[in-house]
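FAQ: What does the model actually see?

It sees only this:
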Amino acid sequence: MSTAEELIGGEEKPWGEVTPEAARKLLVAAVEAFAERGYHATTTRDIAGRAGMSPAALYIHYKTKEELLHRISRIGHDRALEILRAAADGEGTAAERLTDAVRSFVRWHAERHTTARVVQYELDALGDAHRAEIVELRRRSDAAVREIINDGVKAGEFDVPDVPGTTLAVLSLCIDVARWFNTQGRRTPDEVGALYADLVLRMVTAQK
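And it is asked to produce this:
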């Protein structure tokens, strides 16, 4: 099984929302190629070859290489927003919800580090319309975390003079996990998630 197809979080079939099967295989191949070579250095021939298909077969399912990137990015950003929104709308104190948000978001970036590198670091390769769509999803993810931090400030749980700046710092910390995480390392995704959740709480909690 390829890196981009690893079973994560109980999923029966990663990228299962992408059909038909040939389109899914091409998308998986594109994730691996973009993560390894970068978007601009990857050709449609590279992607088709990894999927065991001819270059012509790719155009049956995706009009352009950029359309493939957009599909990957949209699915990844939808999932990121789902994780953060679930935490923001959850029960508990602001500290508990922020812990849940960071732990879950970091774990996703560690478990899916190959996919996440493409989702988070190839934004500028998208065309203007697609880029604007993804930027809006990022804005909504930012809003979910900012909402939790604001709630904590209002409740006296957090001491955060600059909520927008702190929100950016928290999200940047989480996203960067995709850049360095190694499955052969000594920490599991769950352990990294717990560590980062603790670090973020230390960032926002008033020192006594």
